[in-house]
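Course assignment 3, question 2. Fill in each field.
Student: A.L.
Task: Predict the tertiary structure for the chain below.
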Amino acid sequence: MKHMNSEVKEERTSNKKRVDLFLVPIVLIAAFLNLFKIWTDEYANAYYTAAVKSMLQSFHNFFYASFDPGGYVTIDKPPVVFWIQTISVKIFGFHGWSVILPQALAGIGSVLLLYVLIKRTFGVWAGRFAALAMALTPIVPAVSRTNNIDSMLVFTLLLATWMLFRAVRTVKFGWVLAAFAMIGVAFNMKMLQAYMVLPAFYVFYVVATKITWKKKIAFLTTATALMLAVSVSWAVVVDSTSADKRPYMGSSQTNSVLELAFGYNGINRLTGNTSVTGSSHKQPAQTEQQTASSETKQNSNSSADSSQSSNQRKSSFSQKMQAPGGGNQNGMFNTGNPGPFRLFQKGLSDQISWLLPFVIFSIVGLFAGVKFKGPYTAKQKESLFWLAWLLPVAVFFSIAGFFHQYYLIMLAPPIAAFAGAGAVALWSMYKQHNDWKSWLLPGGILTTAALQVYIMSPYVSSIGVAPIAGVGALGVILALVLAIRKQRKNSLTNYLGAAAMVVLLAMPAYWAMTPIIYGGNSMLPSAGPDSSSGMGGPPSTATNSKQSGFNGMQPPGISSGNSSSNNQMQPPSGSSNGGQMPGGSSNNGQMQPPSGSSNSGQMQMPGGSSNNSQMPNSFSSKSSSSKRKSGGMNAEVNQKLLNYLTKNNTGEKYLFATTDSTSAAPYIIKTGKPVMAMGGFSGSDPILTVSKLKAMIKKGEVKYFYLSGMGKGGQSDVITWIKENSKEIPSSKWQSTSSSAQQGPSGNGTLYEITLK
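Answer field:
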């Protein structure tokens, strides 16, 4: 115990020392990657930004994280991160950057926390390398530059890790409780994803804490109970509240937070399947897949174009989806095919795996000579913690049925930790040993350089041959020279080792900058020369993505200047298309490309609509505008429609109702007025019935309905009733004829009016 107290005193003394000057540029790099130009993103992820706009208007909306100001339906995630975003907006005003700011700061905070965690046990240089590796892991800034949840989630879990390490050092039960309670807070950010780190927490506490087994079991049991209580606290309050006194729980099928947590946001991520209302079959998890569907609706400004697009779509149903460049796609949303080497497949490897071979060599070195029964050094214990974080998460992403590329940020902390700790450990072995351990450093450098060449090779048309050849050649040369100069203790060898680390971090650094260089995608963030597409994978060779920000595609309402662009995306036309999302038919959500030779760069997306609204770009191509209206939704509104609805509103609560959040979000953001997404985010939530809708209309709560054909799953009866009992508003009254204006809330659709006595 005296020894533990002395360690704490030493830690406090070290904390009073001056700032590590080597850490300053690392933090500045992280700040640049996470913060630079976030002010150009006007709407960020419009789905979540609309929720923040709604949460500002009342405590009721704030507490439940309501998507719309009317409190009709919530977003599909717990509220903690959105509480923080709402507070940020309250302080700085409503802007895209003010909803992004908390996540950007969390990304910087994660770099600092990892430095602190690694430095104390593995040394200051290990901490510096780990912090730099974390800052330069491409998916980290790509996610942190958006208002998605994952950056804040990782920061919270690293904060819990710091508390756990302190609990082991001080042998104080209070810190154990705090660490597990923090995981409970993280659960209220993204539900079961927060529990991915639990194996590491349990294993480390059992191995590293020098107390009796009886106390270990008692402490862990109590801490786990607290974690579970914190985790379900908000869910219990919501689920126990009468359904008519709160919004519907978005993306759930039973209006339950717990069902959302363990269903859509839980086991369905692993299986990749979820029951779709109104269907007897299984389809990939609908809500976030509908995100991509919403992203790829293309605007049609003439009946001739629409007819041509329809013919192209009909010829595509028998083919599998192609990547933006026309190549074969590896899995849904370019997340690869399940298997032990999935993290090395394109689309995932360039987001997270740049240093994985070096990490594997580091793990071998750090655990060299370890005996199962111990005793274990502090370095070995903490290495075990990071390994118990890395392996389960890596296994999950290797076998999971449905996730997005940006979820891989969960792997960034353990990879960066091993990169930092391993760099110092392998260097020490290289300098001090003459056995097999001395070969780990050159071996790690050589294999890592080889993997990086493999990762970059599909992007040769975008980045050129020189960087690929340079990394490969320098990696081989430095590895061979280090192998030849083993055990030579001079400054040249030291420089060679430092040069090797620079080479291995050079291309991850460039990849981390791509959301700034090429533009990011706030709905489906990813890094790479095609980062603005949110789809990952090699970009098209037909278009200079650096010029367009999205392989030549333009945002809604922006004239492309080339109506025959080979890279425009179009949704299928419905009916028998197997690529439909909820409300469509049964091809398990597969996305289909058009087969026509005249448009080889096109890619069809699910949706089952004849809606041709154009795919939103992450950057507006208007040279006169410094703002970009991204968000993966049609973030611009039809001003003529808005004027018509505002003028003809006779006191109705909702400005209008529509099938899903895609059409509703930009109008909520612009006006702050309630817009009803009848079927929730994807349009498939079983929220509304015909009888409920009749009652709302009779009460004067809603009068106008915009139907575009999207998101009919689970509400086909409601939509049919609307069409049969309404009058159609002539498009001339609300649809803009200008080629630079958006045709309706989310593309071509129909506006209806219903009044009941």
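Instructor remarks: Residues 1-8, 274-329, 539-625, 739-744 have pLDDT under 50 and may be disordered. The radius of gyration is 27 Å.
Grade: pending
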